[in-house]
UniProtKB/TrEMBL annotation:
InterPro entries: DUF6431. Keywords: Membrane, Transmembrane, Transmembrane helix. It comes from the Bacteria. Pfam families: DUF6431. Residues 29-92 form the DUF6431 domain. The keyword Membrane applies. The chain crosses the membrane at residues 81-105. This is DUF6431 domain-containing protein.
């Protein structure tokens, strides 16, 4: 399972701190709800690509002594399974939509675009739940630009945490098929 934690540091600082970062202690298992302190269960490494640079960072894992499942502590700038940071993905899309500029390969940009276009209804619902009453454009691209800008304004930590908490699938995850859940486990 993925658990988001706000480390209060950005990616370069997180990378520099590495395993010495201040990882959270969890007294209650988010999977089985047992009130037993989760044990440290090592790290795995992930590549992270931001606009200016890329890093290889450790992701801390915790193990529940009751259910035996592991919890990965993910920093806010990451989406599960994506190497590009949230900020960078949103920038890639906005730059392309607004100026036709390309910050990554065309293939990758198309992939992100397709995912976002497939999430517009969910994104609108999310934005409405956040209290926005503004009328959104009807044209798909215009609507996507507006909503991505709103998400940027909300701040990625807020967005990722709230989205993850309230949605079955994470932002940018593949759509649901046949009622099956997109796995949150790793
Ligand atoms: Zn558990």
């Amino acid at each position: 399972m993925v658990y988001y934690h706000d480390f209060l540091v950005e990616l370069p600082r997180y990378a520099t701190l590495g395993k010495a970062n201040d990882f959270p202690i969890m007294e209650c298992c988010p999977i089985c709800r047992a009130k037993n302190r989760l044990q440290r269960h090592g790290f795995y490494e992930r590549n992270v690509i931001a606009e200016e640079c890329s890093f290889r960072i450790p992701i801390c894992r915790l193990l529940c002594p009751d259910c035996g499942r592991t919890v990965s502590i993910l920093p806010m700038f990451l989406l599960p399974y994506f190497q590009y940071t949230v900020d960078f993905i949103l920038r890639i899309l906005l730059v392309f939509w607004m100026t036709c500029g390309c910050l990554c390969t065309r293939q990758l940009r198309r992939f992100y675009e397709k995912r976002v276009f497939g999430k517009l209804t969910e994104m609108e619902l999310f934005i409405r739940e956040e209290g926005c009453l503004e009328i959104l454009p009807n044209i798909r691209k215009e609507k996507a630009i507006k909503m991505v800008q709103m998400i940027q304004a909300l701040g990625k930590a807020t967005f990722v945490r709230r989205w993850w908490r309230h949605r079955i699938s994470s932002f940018m995850a593949a759509p649901l098929y046949h009622g099956t859940r997109v796995a949150k486990t790793e």
